[in-house]
Amino acid sequence: MMKVKLFSDGSSRGNPGPGGFGTILQYVDPSGKLHEREYSGGEEETTNNRMELMGVITGLEALTRPCEVEVISDSKYVTDAFNQNWIEGWKKKGWRSSSGEVKNIDLWKRLLKAAEPHELKFIWVKGHAGNPENERCDKLATAYADSVALH
Fold first, then answer.
1. Does the pLDDT value for residue 150 go beyond 80?
2. Can 52 be counted among the known catalytic residues?
3. Which position among 20, 74, 118, 133 bears the catalytic label?
4. Known active-site residue 135
5. In 10 A of CB 107, how many CB atoms?
6. SS3 for the chain, per residue?
7. Is residue 106 annotated as part of the catalytic site, yes or no?
8. 146 is catalytic
9. In the chain, N or C: fewer CB atoms in 10 Å?
10. 63-121: pLDDT as tens digits
11. Is there a catalytic annotation at residue 74?
12. φ, ψ for residue 131 (rounded to 5)?
């Protein structure tokens, strides 16, 4: 099974407001050569959490075969949902949390569908702390959010 690293970040200018995400996929082939792809996108009226989710979704949906994927994100919203088993609890309770209905159900369901063929491991990294790929994802996300804000 291919081992892939998926770096992702999301941004919004206002919450809600114009937003963007940045995603980097990395794969090292058997000869040791690094293959990398970058993705970005966004929406005119969105939230930071929606963009964090869209970054991960975009990366997973770009994979064409089952992979072992390390999802590396500075979003506790995304990483804790899996690492703290929030998702399983939400599903069992009909997409409700202790504070009411879970937000962004459409994107959580889309993420789960995109994740189905893969083995995932979620890793949290501190944002703006010098991780080169996280910094690049942040630049992609904010550039997209800023470009959407100009229209």
1. no
2. yes
3. 74
4. no
5. 17
6. CEEEEEEEEEEECCCCEEEEEEEEEEEECCCCCEEEEEEEEEEEEECHHHHHHHHHHHHHHHCCCCEEEEEEECCHHHHHHHHCCHHHHHHHCCCEECCEECCCHHHHHHHHHHHCCCEEEEEECCCCCCCHHHHHHHHHHHHHHHHHHCC
7. no
8. no
9. C
10. 999 999 999 999 999 999 999 999 999 999 999 988 889 999 999 999 999 999 999 99
11. yes
12. -70, 115
Cα–Cα nearest to 78, from 136, 37, 1, 23? 23
User: Of the residues 52, 55, 59, 118, which is catalytic?
Assistant: 52
Confirm if 14 and 32 have CB atoms less than 8 A apart. no
Report the predicted TM-score, pTM, of the whole model to 2 decimal places. Answer: 0.95
- In this structure, the chain runs to a length of 151
Tokens 């994107």 identify what position? 107
Structure tokens at 120: 């995932």
Active-site option among 35, 36, 38, 128: 128
Domains of the chain listed by start with CATH number: 2-149 (3.30.420.10)
Q: Which of 148, 116, 119, 121 is nearest to 10 (CA)?
A: 148
Residue 57 has pLDDT above 80, yes or no: yes
Q: Annotated catalytic, 20?
A: no
- Please give the Cα distance from 11 to 129 (Å, whole number): 16
Write down the catalytic residue from 9, 20, 43, 59.
9
